[in-house]
Amino acid sequence: MKSQLLVEAPTHKWIYFGRDPDKPEKIIDTNQYMLVTEHKALLMDPGGVELFAPMLANIVKHIPLEQLTHLFASHQDPDIISSLGLWDQTLPEAKLYSPWIWEGFIRHFGMSNITYEALPDEGSRLILDQAEVQFIPAHYLHASGNFHVYDPATRVLMSGDVGAALEGPNVSIFVDDFESHIKKMSFFHQRWMPSNAAKNDWIARVRKLDIEYMCPQHGRIFKGEQVGQFLDWFEQLEVGQAISNS
Questions:
Q1: Burial category of 206 from C-beta neighbours within 10 Å (exposed 0-12, middle 13-18, buried 19 and up)
Q2: For residues 73 and 138, what is the distance between their CA atoms, to the nearest angstrom?
Q3: Is the C-alpha dihedral spanning 177, 46, 129, 16 positive or negative?
Q4: Where does the chain cross the membrane (predicted)?
Q5: Which of 48, 111, 168, 169 has its CB surrounded by the most CB atoms within 10 Å?
């Protein structure tokens, strides 16, 4: 698994994890992100149970394990949070921030020690030392309860499944050519995103944010003008493909 510094501010930094060459062939490739402050850290969408060992090995290269105090799950999918039972034994004092609607489902992955912090539909904020992040509503994209994480200081939006692409593990972590990247995103967004109304609501919300890095949970990271290119492309895309094709 690769890990590298993504961006750094005076009070905190973002670290990227992904592109694991040793993952099982039929397991979808995922990206994980960690925000690190002086004394605390927030691990976002920590991954499936099969990623726990490589994630743990890479995290301790960057911070002592006791500094990992907070987890975030954008929604309930197994590639997002099925490792929870193992983190629950490793980080018994941690807090998990996730949509209120999914608590009864996420607890099936195993949760005896970690505290569940249920996010209200309208979103909320989290302060870690001197850093503050916002939990941005992204409902129905693709889960009925879904959130993204925005950091105004570094202008990073962790965008979950929005912006995701399906490609191999041995590619760059950044989009290098937006037009050629479209064909890797189209099916995923048309099939996994069920609602044009929800899509447009999210786009209107996100256009008000100052974003330099848009970091999805699959595929590559968008930077600079590519963020606007993605929003323009996504806005004109008709989603809910399975319904329209039935």
A1: buried
A2: 13
A3: negative
A4: none
A5: 48
**Per-residue pLDDT band at 246 (split at 50, 70, 90):** very low
pLDDT tens profile 196-232: 999 999 999 999 999 999 999 999 999 999 999 999 9
Pair of tokens at residue 142: 């693709």
**Residue-wise burial string across 110-138, b where 16 or more C-beta atoms lie within 10 A, e elsewhere:** bbeebebbebeeebeebebeebebbbbbb
In angstroms, what CA-CA distances link 142 with 1, 17, 164, 197, 239?
Answer: 26, 22, 11, 12, 11
- Rounded to two decimals, what is the model's pTM? 0.96
Cα separation, 109 vs 198, in Å, equals 28
3 state DSSP class of 123 = coil
